[in-house]
């Protein structure tokens, strides 16, 4: 079992404006494409036994620009399904539901925390089963939730891990403990 490298896709128009983006498959902005390209030299220095991507174009394009043109697509890496809140900002949601967060309140018509836990636990198990490091291209909320599950925490604890677009984070071990080795780099 090796480390797990997490890459959040480059910027899109909606990620830049804070709109929840799950199934809406927006392209990367020019800045998002440049950020993805800038990851290539750092990732080229590593060797990965497993390279996975969300099925969404923004994650697959980030993988391509970062030097991984043919990652294995894993539907379990899809972004959290925001349901009726797709394309809406947190501020707009809070006009109707003042204390809402994706971490603590369900998204009408979307996924529950239990749904997200089940699919991300499958990804974690898959990463732990390979002999070597894994590289995952995905999304803000789902990668934060995945990191929480790696650490043995509830997905809601992902709220403590801000994750910017076009960044690399690494999960691993120190002795017998699952840890965050690098975050938002």
UniProtKB/TrEMBL annotation:
Xref: Gene3D superfamilies: Phosphoglycerate mutase-like
Active site positions, chain numbering: 9, 79
Pfam family of the protein (one): His_Phos_1
Residues holding substrate: 58, 79-82
GO MF, any single term: protein histidine phosphatase activity
Listed name of the protein: Histidine phosphatase family protein
GO biological process: regulation of phosphorelay signal transduction system
InterPro entries, A to Z: His_Pase_superF_clade-1 (IPR013078), His_PPase_superfam (IPR029033), PGM_Phosphatase (IPR050275)
Source lineage: Bacteria, Bacillati, Actinomycetota, Actinomycetes, Propionibacteriales
């Amino acid at each position: 079992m090796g480390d797990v490298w997490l890459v959040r896709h480059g910027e899109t128009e909606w990620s830049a404006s804070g709109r929840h983006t799950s199934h809406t498959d927006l392209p990367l902005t020019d800045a998002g494409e440049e950020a993805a390209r800038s990851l290539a030299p750092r990732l080229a220095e590593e060797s990965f036994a497993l390279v996975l991507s969300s099925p969404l174009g923004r994650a697959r394009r980030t993988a391509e620009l970062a030097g991984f043109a043919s990652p294995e697509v894993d539907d379990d890496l899809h972004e959290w399904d925001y349901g009726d809140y797709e394309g809406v900002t947190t501020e707009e949601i809070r006009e109707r539901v003042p204390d809402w967060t994706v971490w603590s309140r369900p998204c009408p018509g979307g996924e529950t925390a239990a749904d997200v836990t089940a699919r991300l636990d499958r990804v974690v198990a898959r990463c732990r089963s390979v002999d070597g490091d894994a590289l995952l291209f995905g999304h803000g909320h789902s990668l934060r939730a995945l990191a929480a599950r790696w650490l043995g925490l509830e997905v809601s604890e992902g709220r403590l891990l801000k994750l910017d677009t076009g960044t690399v984070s690494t999960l691993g071990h120190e002795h017998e403990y699952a840890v965050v080795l690098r975050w938002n780099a």
